[in-house]
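Q: Given only this backbone (197 positions), what sequence would you predict?
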Protein backbone atom coordinates (compact mmCIF):
# COMPACT_ATOMS: atom_id res chain seq x y z
CA UNK A 1 0.00 0.00 0.00
CA UNK A 2 1.65 3.23 -1.16
CA UNK A 3 1.80 5.99 1.44
CA UNK A 4 0.58 9.23 -0.16
CA UNK A 5 1.19 12.74 1.12
CA UNK A 6 -1.02 15.58 -0.10
CA UNK A 7 0.16 19.21 -0.13
CA UNK A 8 -2.42 21.99 0.03
CA UNK A 9 -2.66 25.74 0.46
CA UNK A 10 -6.40 26.36 0.73
CA UNK A 11 -9.75 24.65 0.99
CA UNK A 12 -8.50 21.24 -0.05
CA UNK A 13 -11.39 20.09 -2.23
CA UNK A 14 -9.08 18.07 -4.49
CA UNK A 15 -7.40 16.63 -1.39
CA UNK A 16 -10.80 15.43 -0.18
CA UNK A 17 -11.56 13.87 -3.57
CA UNK A 18 -8.24 12.02 -3.52
CA UNK A 19 -8.53 10.89 0.08
CA UNK A 20 -12.10 9.63 -0.29
CA UNK A 21 -11.06 7.57 -3.30
CA UNK A 22 -8.14 5.96 -1.46
CA UNK A 23 -10.15 3.21 0.19
CA UNK A 24 -10.89 -0.44 -0.46
CA UNK A 25 -8.74 -1.97 -3.18
CA UNK A 26 -7.02 1.32 -4.01
CA UNK A 27 -3.22 0.88 -4.21
CA UNK A 28 -2.61 3.93 -2.00
CA UNK A 29 -3.67 5.58 1.23
CA UNK A 30 -3.56 9.23 2.27
CA UNK A 31 -1.16 9.26 5.24
CA UNK A 32 -0.42 12.98 5.60
CA UNK A 33 -1.80 16.35 4.55
CA UNK A 34 0.61 19.28 4.73
CA UNK A 35 -0.45 22.91 4.38
CA UNK A 36 1.85 25.89 3.94
CA UNK A 37 -0.79 28.09 5.63
CA UNK A 38 -2.06 27.32 9.15
CA UNK A 39 -5.41 28.85 8.15
CA UNK A 40 -5.95 26.50 5.21
CA UNK A 41 -9.49 25.15 5.37
CA UNK A 42 -8.33 21.80 4.06
CA UNK A 43 -6.68 21.03 7.39
CA UNK A 44 -10.07 20.80 9.09
CA UNK A 45 -11.34 18.58 6.28
CA UNK A 46 -8.32 16.30 6.65
CA UNK A 47 -8.92 16.07 10.39
CA UNK A 48 -12.54 15.13 9.71
CA UNK A 49 -11.26 12.36 7.42
CA UNK A 50 -8.85 11.26 10.18
CA UNK A 51 -5.76 11.96 8.10
CA UNK A 52 -2.73 13.25 10.02
CA UNK A 53 -1.87 16.86 9.24
CA UNK A 54 1.14 19.13 9.46
CA UNK A 55 1.76 22.82 8.82
CA UNK A 56 4.97 24.13 7.30
CA UNK A 57 4.22 27.84 7.17
CA UNK A 58 6.21 29.44 4.37
CA UNK A 59 6.09 32.75 6.25
CA UNK A 60 8.37 31.23 8.88
CA UNK A 61 11.04 31.03 6.17
CA UNK A 62 11.26 34.52 4.65
CA UNK A 63 13.54 34.44 1.61
CA UNK A 64 14.62 30.92 2.59
CA UNK A 65 13.11 28.42 0.17
CA UNK A 66 15.77 25.87 1.06
CA UNK A 67 14.79 25.98 4.72
CA UNK A 68 11.08 25.79 3.87
CA UNK A 69 11.62 22.78 1.65
CA UNK A 70 13.87 21.10 4.21
CA UNK A 71 11.00 21.33 6.70
CA UNK A 72 8.59 19.94 4.09
CA UNK A 73 10.96 17.08 3.36
CA UNK A 74 11.36 16.30 7.05
CA UNK A 75 7.59 16.09 7.54
CA UNK A 76 7.22 13.83 4.50
CA UNK A 77 10.05 11.58 5.65
CA UNK A 78 8.71 11.35 9.19
CA UNK A 79 5.41 10.06 7.79
CA UNK A 80 7.29 7.70 5.44
CA UNK A 81 5.55 9.21 2.41
CA UNK A 82 6.30 7.51 -0.90
CA UNK A 83 4.27 9.60 -3.39
CA UNK A 84 3.29 13.26 -3.16
CA UNK A 85 0.14 14.77 -4.68
CA UNK A 86 0.03 18.55 -4.99
CA UNK A 87 -3.59 19.63 -4.63
CA UNK A 88 -3.84 23.40 -4.83
CA UNK A 89 -0.39 23.87 -3.34
CA UNK A 90 0.50 27.45 -4.21
CA UNK A 91 4.25 27.42 -3.72
CA UNK A 92 6.80 26.97 -6.49
CA UNK A 93 9.18 24.16 -5.59
CA UNK A 94 12.88 24.30 -6.38
CA UNK A 95 14.58 21.92 -8.82
CA UNK A 96 16.50 20.40 -5.89
CA UNK A 97 13.25 19.47 -4.13
CA UNK A 98 11.46 18.19 -7.22
CA UNK A 99 14.52 16.08 -8.09
CA UNK A 100 14.14 14.23 -4.78
CA UNK A 101 10.60 13.29 -5.77
CA UNK A 102 11.16 12.68 -9.49
CA UNK A 103 8.63 10.15 -10.72
CA UNK A 104 6.81 10.29 -7.37
CA UNK A 105 5.08 13.69 -7.41
CA UNK A 106 1.89 14.69 -9.24
CA UNK A 107 0.11 18.01 -9.67
CA UNK A 108 -3.25 19.15 -10.99
CA UNK A 109 -3.35 22.39 -12.96
CA UNK A 110 -6.48 24.26 -14.15
CA UNK A 111 -5.65 24.47 -17.84
CA UNK A 112 -5.09 22.21 -20.80
CA UNK A 113 -1.33 22.13 -20.56
CA UNK A 114 0.93 23.09 -22.22
CA UNK A 115 -1.38 26.12 -22.49
CA UNK A 116 -1.53 28.65 -19.67
CA UNK A 117 1.08 27.60 -17.19
CA UNK A 118 1.06 29.59 -13.97
CA UNK A 119 -1.79 31.66 -12.55
CA UNK A 120 -5.07 33.22 -13.79
CA UNK A 121 -5.75 30.41 -16.22
CA UNK A 122 -9.51 30.97 -16.48
CA UNK A 123 -9.13 34.63 -17.37
CA UNK A 124 -6.42 33.81 -19.89
CA UNK A 125 -8.67 31.25 -21.62
CA UNK A 126 -11.37 33.89 -22.02
CA UNK A 127 -8.92 36.53 -23.21
CA UNK A 128 -7.64 34.13 -25.87
CA UNK A 129 -11.15 33.28 -27.04
CA UNK A 130 -10.63 29.54 -26.60
CA UNK A 131 -13.60 27.28 -27.27
CA UNK A 132 -12.35 24.58 -24.85
CA UNK A 133 -10.92 24.68 -21.35
CA UNK A 134 -9.98 22.04 -18.83
CA UNK A 135 -7.50 20.70 -16.31
CA UNK A 136 -4.38 18.57 -16.44
CA UNK A 137 -2.72 16.11 -14.08
CA UNK A 138 1.00 15.81 -14.71
CA UNK A 139 4.20 14.60 -13.15
CA UNK A 140 6.10 17.39 -11.44
CA UNK A 141 9.48 18.37 -12.86
CA UNK A 142 11.82 21.28 -12.26
CA UNK A 143 9.92 23.42 -14.79
CA UNK A 144 6.68 25.09 -13.68
CA UNK A 145 3.53 23.21 -14.71
CA UNK A 146 5.56 20.95 -16.97
CA UNK A 147 6.32 17.25 -16.96
CA UNK A 148 4.62 14.27 -18.58
CA UNK A 149 0.85 14.66 -18.90
CA UNK A 150 -1.04 11.85 -17.16
CA UNK A 151 -4.59 13.03 -17.78
CA UNK A 152 -6.80 15.86 -18.97
CA UNK A 153 -10.46 16.71 -18.59
CA UNK A 154 -12.01 19.09 -21.13
CA UNK A 155 -15.16 21.18 -21.25
CA UNK A 156 -16.70 23.76 -23.55
CA UNK A 157 -16.37 27.48 -22.90
CA UNK A 158 -19.90 28.91 -23.00
CA UNK A 159 -21.08 32.32 -24.11
CA UNK A 160 -21.13 34.64 -21.11
CA UNK A 161 -18.62 32.60 -19.13
CA UNK A 162 -16.51 34.46 -16.58
CA UNK A 163 -13.37 33.30 -14.78
CA UNK A 164 -15.61 32.42 -11.83
CA UNK A 165 -18.11 30.34 -13.83
CA UNK A 166 -15.28 28.50 -15.56
CA UNK A 167 -13.65 27.73 -12.22
CA UNK A 168 -16.94 26.51 -10.75
CA UNK A 169 -17.67 24.21 -13.70
CA UNK A 170 -14.12 22.91 -13.87
CA UNK A 171 -13.83 21.90 -10.22
CA UNK A 172 -16.09 18.82 -10.46
CA UNK A 173 -14.02 17.67 -13.44
CA UNK A 174 -10.85 18.07 -11.37
CA UNK A 175 -12.48 15.95 -8.65
CA UNK A 176 -13.15 13.19 -11.21
CA UNK A 177 -9.83 13.33 -13.03
CA UNK A 178 -7.27 13.53 -10.22
CA UNK A 179 -8.43 10.46 -8.25
CA UNK A 180 -8.68 8.42 -11.45
CA UNK A 181 -5.16 9.37 -12.55
CA UNK A 182 -3.64 8.80 -9.10
CA UNK A 183 -5.23 5.37 -8.79
CA UNK A 184 -3.85 4.32 -12.18
CA UNK A 185 -0.47 5.91 -11.49
CA UNK A 186 -0.01 4.00 -8.24
CA UNK A 187 -0.94 0.82 -10.07
CA UNK A 188 1.86 1.48 -12.57
CA UNK A 189 -0.30 2.73 -15.46
CA UNK A 190 1.09 5.96 -16.96
CA UNK A 191 -1.24 5.96 -20.00
CA UNK A 192 -2.85 9.42 -20.22
CA UNK A 193 -6.52 9.60 -19.25
CA UNK A 194 -8.85 11.87 -21.25
CA UNK A 195 -12.26 12.91 -19.93
CA UNK A 196 -14.95 15.14 -21.42
CA UNK A 197 -17.31 17.12 -19.26
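A: Predicted residues:
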Amino acid sequence: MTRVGILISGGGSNMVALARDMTGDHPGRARLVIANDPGAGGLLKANALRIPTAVVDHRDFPKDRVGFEAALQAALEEARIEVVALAGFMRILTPAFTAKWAGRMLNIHPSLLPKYKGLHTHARVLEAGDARHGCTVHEVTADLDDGPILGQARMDVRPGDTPQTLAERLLPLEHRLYPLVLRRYLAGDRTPVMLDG
